[in-house]
Design goal:
The chain is of the alpha/beta class. The protein is built from eleven helices and 15 strands. It binds nicotinamide-adenine-dinucleotide.
């Protein structure tokens, strides 16, 4: 029987973050309690639109509110770790958008504090709850792919014209979308990485983060496994349509991401004769795994009924992952289970990227993941 426990959620950061408001409003075990953004006029716009009464312009003030059980953070990358640490210190469970942090030390602090306090931390990685990943994972778990032999992923994006804080951002510092499916498919942990930088971004951007590379390509060795993966990431100066991809090569079947957005993925079946080896497949939706109240949001954006706000909608993007993310986080609190990825898992995923960038700056040096990112 479903529990009738309700978790009071507060969201900080209301651009991407607003996507989650109706999900918590409609989830049977959540109460969309409070929202936070610094500019009062913008805060009120979102609050009025969605009908959220409790509003804060000051995050520290919000954290003093004893009614709040969990904080969901959707602010710019550099704020994630400081805001997560503050929330944990204030006794709140935390969900935070990607990446966990931008330094290894921040990741360590979050893992230690979450484990010390017993509070839940979840990195809200959209790819791990996208219908494409859920489909590939189902195939793998059923044995349909056979023995996994190799994995690769990419996240290429042209951030020209985005807010200035992105300019020159080290590509691998924001690589969780391509790293997480590599590790998530088989439940692996990364043991060490080696990464090469390639190309050069615009001179004026390089000084901002002392990062010159247009693309970073990282090899990841999995712990206690014969597997390795490679991922590549770009943010500036590369001509390529947006792509968050993963390819999984098994002994029986391979799952390959399409080259062009909007095409169906390809399954290669080894036992079939050419040219039937490669077939395009329709990826099913996984809304049936969700409470009925939020099932529609795997395909529907939160502003889809309202033309006025359509330009802000990201909703049904990200593979329909948002309702799955909200659901698994809430249920981990209701049922006292570990969310996925939890602090250690998120640290392993995030530190792959941070250390990959360090490796690229050192000409491809092999760098080990720290102990605190490993389960054992
Ligand atoms: N697929 C994904 O997982 C995905 C998709 C989009 C965005 N994101 C992540 O979500 C985060 C936000 O992205 P965005 O595009 O919405 O960014 P944005 O810059 O458009 O919005 C950030 C929001 O945070 C608020 N904010 C910033 N600092 C604050 C503070 N100290 N107190 C209160 N409010 C504060 C801003 O007012 C704004 O509402 C980023 O980290 C981004 O990487 C993840």
């Amino acid at each position: 029987m479903m529990s009738d426990k309700k978790i009071n959620v507060a969201i900080i950061g209301l651009s991407f973050g607003a996507e989650f408001i109706p999900l918590y409003q409609k989830h049977p075990n959540a109460n969309m309690y409070a929202i936070c953004q610094r500019t009062a006029s913008e805060l009120n716009k979102v609050g009025d639109y969605f009908g959220v009464e409790k509003r804060y312009t000051d995050y520290d003030e919000m954290l003093k509110d004893p009614e709040i059980d969990a904080v969901h953070i959707n602010t710019p990358v550099s704020s994630h770790a400081p805001q997560v640490l503050k929330a944990l210190r204030a006794g709140k469970h935390v969900a935070c958008t990607i990446p966990m942090a931008t330094t290894v030390d921040e990741c360590r602090q979050i893992v230690e504090l979450a484990e010390e306090t017993g509070l839940k931390y979840c990195m809200m990685e959209t790819v791990l709850y996208s219908r494409e990943f859920l489909f590939a994972k189902e195939l793998y778990d059923q044995g349909a792919l056979g023995k996994m032999q190799f994995l690769q992923g990419s996240h290429v994006q042209d951030m020209e014209g985005w807010p200035e804080y992105w300019e020159g951002f080290p590509p691998m510092h924001n690589a969780t979308h391509c790293v997480s499916p590599m590790l998530g498919l088989t439940g692996a942990e990364a043991e060490y990485v080696s990464c090469f930088g390639s190309g050069t971004i615009d001179e004026s951007y390089i000084a901002k983060y002392h990062s010159p590379f247009a693309i970073e390509t990282c090899h990841i060795k999995f712990k206690d496994s014969d597997l390795s993966a490679r991922v590549y990431r770009s943010l500036y100066g590369v001509a390529r349509q947006y792509r968050e991809s993963f390819d999984f090569y098994g002994s029986k079947k391979a799952y390959e991401w399409p080259l062009i957005e909007g095409e169906d993925p390809i399954i290669h079946t080894r036992s079939k004769p050419e040219p039937e080896i490669a077939e395009r497949v329709k990826v099913p939706d996984y809304a049936h795994l969700l409470p009925e109240e939020i099932q529609a949001y795997t395909t529907k954006g939160v502003y889809d009924d309202d033309n006025e706000h359509l330009s802000f909608a990201q909703g049904a993007g990200h593979g329909g992952s948002h309702p799955h993310l909200a659901h698994q986080f809430i249920m981990s609190l209701v049922e006292d289970t570990e969310p996925y990825p939890n602090a250690r898992e998120a640290a392993n995923i995030t530190c792959v990227g941070i250390l990959a960038h360090e490796s690229a700056l050192a000409g491809g040096e092999i760098i080990k993941l720290p102990e605190f990112t490993l389960k054992s």
